[in-house]
Amino acid sequence: MNTEIYRSPYEAYPFLSDGPEDLRCDFELMTDGLSSLTGLLRSKLADDELRAELLWVCELIYHMNPALRTALKVTEDERDRLIAASERLRDRCRGRCRRFVLTQGCEAACVAHVLRVGAKDLTRLLYRHIHQGHEVDTMLVDLANILSGYFFHLALYLNAAEGVDEVDFVSRNY
User: Fold this and answer.
1) pTM over 0.85
2) 3, 89, 142, 146 - which has most CB atoms within 10 Å?
3) If you average pLDDT over every residue of the chain, what do you get?
4) Half-sphere exposure of residue 130, counting CA atoms within 13 Å on the CB side?
């Protein structure tokens, strides 16, 4: 059995052939995807203040990107700024969501919901990495979770701004 892995001379990223148990490249690809989708969401908005904030969030996610391979270089002030942004959005759309809502609405809100889930996927990957015995800066886990909340509140806010009502989801199981 040949154990050597073919490495394409056109490989788009040097860590793509890392072993399946090594989650660092997966984390880097996921943060790259989140940043790219954040840029897409930004392109759909006219609000200059929100566009500037999303550009900052995009950059913040890229600063998270190498954290498993090197070190986390996001500051506590940046984390606190993200928390404040999430809370500001939550306050602006208070009362719009009392339960679990369907992920629908205007196009920008739907993109924000995809980003919300992507941040949860990122959190899950971090926990898998921790379960493998690796140390992970707790602020990195917090940032991934805060991003999920930020994008959730942003989705609610964007729907409100477009006059789109949230649709409650009533589970048959809970």
Assistant:
1) yes
2) 89
3) 95
4) 11
Tell me the C-alpha to C-alpha distance, in Å, between residue 91 and each of 50, 56, 58, 153, 166: 15, 20, 22, 9, 16
Nearest-Å Rg of the Cα atoms of the chain is: 18
* Average pLDDT of the residues in 126-137: 98
45-90: pLDDT as tens digits: 999 999 999 999 999 999 999 999 999 999 999 999 999 999 999 9
Sole residue written with tokens 């052939």: 17
Q: Rounded to an integer, what distance in angstroms lies between the CA atom of residue 146 and that of residue 126?
A: 14
CATH number assigned to the domain covering 24-68+99-161 = 1.20.1200.10
Q: What is the spatial distance between Cα 90 and Cα 87, in angstroms, rounded to a whole number?
A: 5
Distance CA 125, CA 104 (A): 26
Q: Identity (one letter) of the amino acid at 116?
A: R
